[in-house]
């Protein structure tokens, strides 16, 4: 998806489009430093339909009253007096209406809150009239978001500018430093700034070149009171002492929980303020909860307060809480002490790890981090930082997890503690980092953990193999598995913590870390031990090409996982099922893993389970279901910072779109997958994305381009694609090479594919092999091969592959003038493609039918069945009133892609406006048309 900067440009574009027709008003607000002024300047530069009156930020002159109006009129080149009474708004409206009579007018007013009250009232009245009367004048008025909107403007429509997305924030850092910033430093800056561009630049300018380059430690805290105050303009001035205490107490309460608001009664008790005491205007009260209008201002209030006042606020909050032994009270007590406090740290860690406690993972992480800060014993401190990192991972905060693991690594600790931290680091990097680095962390963890616990060492070994698998390094993967770090897998007694890891077709699972003295549920260790052992043996046999030896252990992994509801074992079950080609079992295990992850509230496991589901649906031939799972998986992976997992979801979406014939969508998702794949060494995701692009070429009737793209991936050589994927792409390459007149290029790979088809790991492969042989066979043999291929298709599900065979057979028959038989086959192909939504391929079948003298019945103008599945989704969303941006967010695509498809929808259906589209969709629904 595109970033926030692009979204802002699209918002401006939509606003300006509206202004050209019927005008509009927006009160633009947002956090201090969010770019309100820049937003207005871009709008002013972009407006080409008529004049622009631009009143920039700054205090208004006091020479005349109402001063704000005269400033506006001077910007418009007018200096006529405006009444100072209630008719000023009417007079201003007349000025705007007159100016917009001949061409649209844009009025941009920055920081209108600085105007005097009569001026604000006048502009509010005029704006309301413009909004109601449809005058072709647009007004953009900016106000700060850390206080309520002035009552004179409160009734006008608002546009709140959100934070920059991570990608746009990272680009801003690169632009500000000319790229001279270490990736880890960039990520920490982006996280600390929380999408605020002004704060982000302030933090960048605060650092030395050595700090930006990662050669010197960063200051702590990174965003201190001075940096925050510089962005928000200092703490609120003129606040009475009792209200100042309320502000600081609210900021301290929010800091403890990590939530956007705090219990109002608790804050008032702690601050000594009565329920009737007036609130500062920067605070809002709703539903018994207090919050800052601007979260950034709350951070500034806390960071700018003297340490002794912060400690006093936390002490008061701890005393005001009814549960003095709960995590919130202990956290406040911990921030009320100035230095190490081992006893308090132990109590806080114990409360944070209490299993029955229904604490949010973010609060557990915060408590464990604070416990580690207060701990004096180096070993215990490292363990608590690692435990905090586990909670950060499960909450979908990988960058925070890595920071905590760095803190754990910096403390001397025994090998078992260091091994646990490296095991967790490997899992984090496998989900969101270079997979070669993940492999090295796993290998180090295996060496450190081997003396203490064989199951933990085996978990690390499988993690290293999984990283090598993702990188496409079969030799390294086999070497890791052959090392046999933990042959017996005995003696482990603790319950593993599930770790997020990208999971895909045939990838092994990683487990978790735990302390050797942690308790284990009765009977839980044995299934895990056996599963680790069998999964390792199965993977090793697959890599050696001994599928006969792989079947037994992998099938046991599948069965054990499906016997319980532990997400890790279920995901291992799904991985093993995919390696076996048992897609029904893989779908079942993936669905149950997803349900278990949601039940546990593990944000990190959801995108991983959805990835298994998406791959399983693709292998089963259910590409539209795969697309549904991948769209959801992409959203969850992006939300939890799992870029590697997101890359696999992009690859699935590209593959699904290549069936549906949506070339631009294929290119977009393939490019997104390849960007991450190339940075992080994800050979599997890269191969899938390139295969999708080639299949889109083939569907669009460009077999030569498809063959050129696929040749290096499937033919022997250094550029051959991922070892677990290239076989899947062979049928596509053979078809492309044959149709492009280069059958000799495909002969060798067909024999390699025959070995793959014989192992039984892909239910579609036997029919595909016969189709490939038919494409390359002499005419006297091809006929029988096509018929045998169609017979084998009857044994498996999936309309698309069967329809492709029908299409190729129909083409072959037509070119031999067997027109009656050709029409029958092509008709079956057309029905199959239409059934599975492969519209580009359906057009090929229809063209062949027409060439054979049997034109298919066409759809009339306005028939929704003529749309592709993605176009249908977009048409329905638009008909329900969604904006293009809202459609893009719901479908995990860019707004540009939505614009492109919507233009095609209009052209295909013969409509000229969204109103006509709404009417057409409504009529189709009434008549039972399928959307």
Automatic annotation (TrEMBL):
Where does the HTH luxR-type domain lie? 860-925
Q: What keywords were assigned to this record?
A: DNA-binding
- Bias type Low complexity, positions: 519-529
* InterPro entries associated with the record: P-loop_NTPase (IPR027417), Sig_transdc_resp-reg_C-effctor (IPR016032), TPR-like_helical_dom_sf (IPR011990), Tscrpt_reg_LuxR_C (IPR000792), WalR-like (IPR039420), WH-like_DNA-bd_sf (IPR036388)
Signal peptide interval: none
What Pfam families does the record tag this protein with? GerE (PF00196)
Could you tell me which SUPFAM superfamilies the record lists for this protein? Answer: C-terminal effector domain of the bipartite response regulators, P-loop containing nucleoside triphosphate hydrolases, TPR-like
Asked whether the keyword Zinc is assigned, the reply is no
Region (Disordered) residue ranges read: 492-530
Name of the molecule in the record: LuxR C-terminal-related transcriptional regulator
Q: What high-level taxonomic lineage is stated for the organism?
A: Bacteria, Bacillati, Actinomycetota, Actinomycetes, Kitasatosporales
